[in-house]
Amino acid sequence: MPEYTVVGQPIPKRDAVEKATGRAQYIQDINLPGMLYGKILYSKYPHARIVHIDTTRAQKLQGVRAILTGKDIPEIKLGVYQDNRPLKTDKVRSYRDEVAAVAATDPDIAREALSLIEVSYEALPCVFDPEAAMHAEAPLVHVKHRTNILKMPWKLHFGDVDAAQATAAHVIKERFSTTWVTHCCLSTSGAIAEFDHANNLTIYTNTQIPSLAQKDFLNALTAMGLKNRRVRVIKPVIGGGFGSKLDTYAYEHIAILLAFKTRKPVKLVFDREEEFIATSTRQPALIDISQGCDRDGKLVFRDVAMILDNGAYTSWGATTPSVMMMPITTLYQVPNVRYEATCVYTNNTYSQAMRGYGNPQATFAIESAMDLLAETAGIDPVTFRHINANKPNQVSPQGFRITTCGLKECIDAVTEQLAWGRPKATGEGVGIASLIHVGGGARVYKSDGCGTIIKLDDYGGANVFTGASDMGQGADTVIAQIVAEELALPIEDVRVIHTDTDVCPWDVGAHASRTTFVAGNSALGAARKLKQQILELASNHLEAPPEILALQNRQVICREDPGQRIPIDKLLRKAHFSVGGTMLTAEHFYDPANENLDREFKGNLSMTYTFGAHGVRVRVDQETGKVEILNYVAAHDVGRAINPLLLKGQVYGGVMMGIGYALTEQVVLDKGQTMNPNFRDYKILTAKDTVPIQAPVLETHDPYGPFGAKGIGEPGCVPSAPAIANAVYDAVGVRIKDLPLTPEKVLAALKLKKKHTPPH
Amino acid sequence: MSKEITFQLNHNDLTLAVQEHWTLLHLLREELGLLGTKEGCGSGECGACTVIIDGMAINACLYLAAEADGKEILTIEGLAAPDGTLNPLQQSFITNGGIQCGFCSPGMLLAAKALLDENPNPSEDEIKHALAGNICRCTGYVQIIDSIKAACAPKNEDVKVVAWQTKP
User: Fold this and answer.
1) Cβ contact (<8 Å) for B76 and A19?
2) Sequence-ordered list of residues with C-beta below 8 angstroms from that of A339, at least 6 positions apart, any chain
3) Residue A48 in domain
C-alpha cells in the first residue's frame, strides 16, 4: 500500500477553532443593515377552510412593515410533488400550514402583530390514520387529487415470490411500525433574504442543497414575475443537518416574499417550538414483511409491503422507498423479492429526509424479521446472517453491483467484541443487526455530480472551491486532506470554500452519505490536473521531463536527482510574473458512473455500498420495562478512513441518534397536533445516557472511492433499533414491533407474555 | 423600566443600563454583540447559552440581565487568554473531535470549564453529570467526554482508543 502523509490522519475539523472560540457565524449571528424580522402565523386547525383573514389591526401596529397572506402572493409551488405553497389560500391541511407572515423592525413587534391577525376558519373533517385515509370515503386532503393515495409507483418484483413461498421450509410474517422522529439540529432553521436594486436575490440560508435551492428560488422569482434574475445562495455555518435541509421550505420563500415587498433584508429564524412543529420529520412507516428460507437456512424469498403516512404535503419522505429497497433486496442474498410502498396523504405533519433516508425503518423490519426466521428455522441468529450475508463482487436482483463488501467481517467483529457467547445474567440479552447503505453516491437526480475548482496563489497555498456542503460532518476537512495529499502540501496550506454559489461549483447536495466519495473524487480529479500543470511548469524550469518529477513537501523534486528541486511557491511566482504570465487553476466535475433506477427499480444506484453490523448487550428490568444498554459495538466497512477522528465522530453520533430512535424519541401527534415541541418532552439522549460504544473499522479499499473511501455519514444510525429489539427479545422473550421501545411497551409485552404462559 | 448594573464581563468591568425584562442572553447577543453565546431553545432545556456566573454554569436564557449586577461573568469570547492562546479545554475539544457542527460547543466548553474549576480531576460520571443539561446532536457526546478527560489529565493516556483493523 502507498504511504500517505495527510490521508488517514486524525486531522481536527478545519473550522473547529472558529467554533471553539465563538467566532463561527450561524444564521442567528448574521445581521444586515436595515434588516427586518419575519414571523409566520400557523394554522389553528388540522384541516379547515380559510374563510377570512383580517390584518387591519396588525397593519396599524407601529414597526410593522409588511403583512402577507396567501392571496397577496403569486402561486409558488413547493416540494417534490409541487403540492405545497408558501402561504395557504383556500384551506389549511395541517397544523403547520402557514397562513400569514409579518415583517417588522423588531422580532417582538412581529410576534405581537401575529397575535393581531384574525383568521376565521371553517373546520373540515380530518384524517390522521393512513390506512383510514386510503378508504374511498375518507376526507380528501387534496381534493383535486381525488384520492389520498399518491400516484407514486413504488413496486418491484424480482424472481417469483409466490412460487418461492410455496416451497420454503420456514416462513414468518409480521407487521412492524415506526413513528415520527425529528432531526433536533441545535441551530434552528432560518434564512435572510435580500434583493438588490435590479431584483437579484441574495439568500443566506441553512441548506444542504445550495445548487438545487438556487434553482427552487429562481423558479420562485419567475413566479413573482422576476425573470432572468440571479440568485446567490450563501450558507452560514450550519448547526446540524441530518437531512433536514434537503428541501426548500415555505419559510425561505416567505423571507424572499417579505424582502421583495419591503425592499429590505428580512431575517426569519425559527424558535425551538417552531422547529419541532414546522420542520419535517423522519418518514413513519407501517411495514408488513414475510420471508422464508430453505432447510439450510438460505433465504428464498422476501415480501414487503409498506404504508407511509405522507402527511399533508410531499417532500423527500415520500421518496424514501427508493432507499428502503436497498436493504430489502441487497443486504442479504435473496433471489425472490417483492416490495410495494403506498404513500398516503393525511392531516399530519409531512416528512423529509433524515439520516438513513428510510433505511432505519426498513432495516428495523428486516433485521427483526431475520431473528424471527432464524428462530423458526432453529438456527442461531449470527449463523443465519452468515449464511445469507452478501459478498464482494456480486450483482443483486435489483442490479446493485457490489464491489467491496466487509459484511461478514463486521459481523465477526461484533460477535467478538461483544463476547457474544458469554453466559448471561437474568434479564440480559444480546442482539445483532446488519446494514447496507449507499457508499458511492446515489443517482436520484439526472446528475449525481460535484464540481471543484482549485486556485493556487503566489505563495503556494491552495483555495479549493467545492460544491460540497459542510454542516458539521467534516466535508471541509476531508476535501482539504485529499487535495493536500495529492499536491504534497501541509493541510494548513489548503483552504476549502463551500459557502457561496457565486464562487462554488454545482453539487447535487449533501445527502446519501455521498460527499466524501463524490466531492472527494471531484477534488481529487482537480488536484490531479493541477499537479500535472505544476509538473509541466517545473519541467521547463528544471529541464527534466515531467515523468521523473514529483511533488514532495511543498517542492517539486527530480526523482532521479533529488538535488534538483524548486519550491512550489517560487515556481508559481516565476510563472505568474514572467512575460505572458500564467496562474494555475484547475477544475474538475466528477459525476459517478452509477445509474438511476429504471421503471422496474433496477439499476446500480451507487458506485459502491457501505456495509456494517451493530451488536448490543442489554439488561431489561422486568419490574419497570426499562432497557439498559451495557455495551454497543458498531462495526463498519468504510473502504478507507480518510480521517479516523471525524469518522469515529460520525459513527458515535449516528449510534447515539440510532439508540434514541430505538428507545426514547417520538414526536407525539394527537389528531395532527404536536404535543411535545420541546426538549423536555421530546427525549433526545443526553450525556448521562451515553453508553460504552466500540467502533471497529474495516478497510476494504474500494476501487472507486477516493483513496479507497466509502461514505459513512448515515450508516451509524441504521441498524440500532433492530439490534436493540433483538437483544430485548433475547433478554426477556418479548418482541417489540413498534418504535420506540419504551418501558411501557416492554412492560405491557411482559405482562401479556406472563398471561399467556401456562403455570407450571 | 431600566436599571443600571455594574459587573465584570470577560475580565473587564462594565456599567450599563439594562431593561428589567432582558435576559442575560439578550444582553449579550442583542445589546453587546457577543454572538458566541448561542440560543438553542430559549427555555433552559438545551444548554447552548451556558455562561459562567461567579463560577457556576448558568443558562443565560433563564437569567435576568439585571441580576448580573456585581457578578463575574465569563462567556466563550473570554475563554481563551487575552493574547489568543486557547484554553486547554478549547484545544482538547479541537484535537479530540469534540466539535462537529459547533453550535453546542460554546455552552459545552463553559459547562466543562465550570466543572474543572471546581473539580480538576472529575470521574467520567461526574463529567456526564456536569454536561447533562447541554444537548449535542452530532457527536453522541463520546468525543466531548474524551476531550474533557484529555484536558484535565493531559499526560494521562486513559482516553478511549478505538481498534483499527486494516485489511490488505
Assistant:
1) no
2) A154, A155, A156, A157, A303, A304, A305, A306, A321, A324, A325, A328, A329
3) yes
